[in-house]
Amino acid sequence: MKKPRRGEAPGPLNINSMMDMMTIILVFLLKSYSSEDVSVAPSDNLQLPFSTAEAAPKLAVNMVVEKGQVIVDGKPILQLGTADDPTKPGSKVPAVPETELQGQLVPKLFDVLTQKATDAKALGERAGGSSKDLGFKGQILMQVDKDMPFNVVRTVMYTAGQAQFGEFKFVVVKLNE
Prior knowledge:
Elements: H1 15-32, E1 50-51, E2 61-65, E3 69-72, E4 75-79, E5 81-84, E6 92-95, H2 107-126, E7 139-144, H3 150-162, E8 167-170, E9 173-174
Helix pairs in contact: 2-3
C-alpha cells in the first residue's frame, strides 16, 4: 500500500459553492439596504430651515415653495408675487397674487394636487388593495424656504388639504451636533 503524500496541492476550487455564497451575501445586502430618495434641488431661491430632527423622509408628492414660485414634483405651478412687509416698512415679501386666489384656495395648485391624488388612488386600486394600504395616503413632502411668510405657507397647505392631502412632512437640513 502506498502512503498518501502530504504536502500535495489541494484540488481546484469548487466555483459552484463560491457562487452560492456570493449570491446569499448579495441578497442579504440588497434586503438590508434601504435608501430614502428625496431630491432636494439646490436653488438660490430655496434655503431650508435647520433642525435636529431624526426621522427619515418618506417618498410622497414633493412640493417646493421657493421665494418666487410653487413647484409640484418638479413642475412650476404657481408664480408668487410680492407684497409689502408689515414688519419692515419699505421692504417686500413673497405673496400669492390676489388674481390666483379664490378665498384661501389656489385653483391652479388645487387642480394639480387633485390629479396627483386621483392618480395615486387609481394606482393603489390597480395594485390589488385598498387605496389606504398601497397607494394614496394623503402625504405631501414640503420644502419651504425658511424666510417664507406664514400666510403663503398657510394658503398652500390649505389648498393641499382641500385636495385630500392631509399629512404634511416638512423637509429640513439636519444640524450636525
